[in-house]
Amino acid sequence: MATAKKAAKKTAAKKPAAKKAAAKKTAAKKPAAKKAAKAVKKPAAKKAAAKKPAAKRKPNAAFMKAMTPSAVLAAVVGATPMPRTEVTKKIWDYIKKNKLQDAINKRLINADEKLRAVFGGKGKVSMFEMTKLVSNHLK
Question: Whole-model pTM above 0.85?
């Protein structure tokens, strides 16, 4: 039993020395690894600079197509054909001008008589549902 304890002490004494040597080896490897990482990063930066600048985004033709509003929607935005984006902008202008956005929950729109006809008789509509309901009035 005494010999087992001595053997355990000897191996325990040898392990820290081995760990120290291993630590010295990894410490020697770290600067080399950092240099290698820097060398790898530099060419990547050159590649990013070599890329062509992004071209300007082209609007989707479907959004820019002139749509004719129905008679009900024309009372709010006008009767002239216009793209969906312009219809949405004009509806928001109408909502803000008449202060129809809900004070507590800004996502809700309180419809007046003109908008109630566009929204299918609903008194309150969320801004996300609004675009769906307005699209029914565009041809």
Answer: no
